[in-house]
Design goal:
about 300 residues; alpha/beta; Rossmann fold
């Protein structure tokens, strides 16, 4: 199918930064394959962090060409993104449509509320949908494109290139000595919200991370290893004194892309490290059980087609 004028609207926010990136990336892969256009007001909270979306309200894909008057519109764009006005409107409208069959016949909306697991838009939406309809509202989190995210991976990565300020800060996480002489292992110590998620089953104590770091040292006896530790809580640097470490004190977006530059990554099941692995094409080990053994082959570059955990 080529030349379609179909327009897709993402209408429901799903979690925070990495969740929204991964959902959008999967829908971008589908849109790229089908030559569709996307408006994603759910991304307004993070639009200022990416080159493709920083001067927009709709975080559109493909990115819009920015007009000469964009600098005069920038203050308005920033205000609209900060209050998420368009998102509030379209989300409210989608909720009304979901409860009204007559409106749904005019404004088709696809929700994942009855999905048992992930589903592919490529399989759900036939090409002839766009012969009679010009729009589709997508509401939910479970839409995944395992084949198309691989096929269109480079365009997805280009779209989610962070702004220069973030890239500069990420570079500062990697002193020259580490890049040249060390195998850098990214460690994602997820605490905080993980104390409640799934009953805290992945809220591992810090001592478990230290044990895993020791095992990784043993896996690479011929390499000098340095660990970049990213966490959503404050950590005591002294407890890592047997390792060569850098503990990040950066923002979530900077941690996310710093992890993507590491040679290896490990952490609990999370879309955060899933995206870092996919974006940087770096091997990842998700720890589902701290007692399980692992080896070098256990680290694999992640796709973004499954839901971790």
């Amino acid at each position: 199918m080529t030349g379609t004028t179909g327009k897709v609207y993402i209408v429901k926010r799903c979690g925070r930064l990495a969740n929204r990136i991964i959902l959008y990336a999967n829908i971008i892969a589908w849109a790229e394959e089908k030559k569709l256009k996307i408006t994603n007001f759910t991304f307004q909270s993070y639009a200022n962090l990416f080159e493709s979306t920083k001067l927009t309200c709709g975080s559109a894909y493909p990115p819009h060409e920015l007009g000469v008057l964009i600098k005069f519109s920038l203050p308005i764009i920033k205000i609209l993104n900060s209050i998420r006005f368009q998102y509030q409107c379209i989300n409210l409208f989608s909720k009304i449509v979901l409860k009204n069959n007559l409106l749904a016949s005019v404004f088709p909306i696809l929700s994942d509320r009855n999905f048992d697991g992930t589903r592919s838009l490529s399989e759900i939406i036939p090409d002839d949908h766009w012969f009679t309809r010009k729009t589709l509202f997508v509401s939910g989190w479970k839409f995944r494109e395992p084949i198309l995210t691989v096929k269109h991976g480079s365009k997805i990565r280009d779209f989610f290139k962070p702004i220069e300020k973030v890239r500069i800060q990420v570079e500062k996480s990697f002193p020259l000595r580490e890049k040249d002489k060390f195998l850098v292992v990214g460690v994602h110590i997820r605490k905080g919200d993980y104390s409640n998620w799934k009953g805290g089953m992945y809220d591992y104590p810090v001592c478990d991370y230290i044990t895993i770091m020791e095992k990784i040292l043993d896996l690479f006896p011929d390499n000098k290893l340095s660990f970049l530790i990213c966490s959503n809580v404050t950590l005591d640097e002294e407890i890592f004194n047997k390792f060569d470490i850098t503990i990040s004190h950066n923002s979530p977006i900077e941690d996310l892309y710093a992890l993507s530059m590491c040679d290896l990554i490990f952490g609990p099941p999370s879309t955060f490290t899933q995206w870092a692995s996919f974006y940087g094409e770096k091997p990842l080990l998700h720890i589902y059980n701290t007692e399980e053994e692992f080896n070098q082959n256990s680290f694999q570059v992640s796709g973004i087609s499954n839901i971790p955990g």
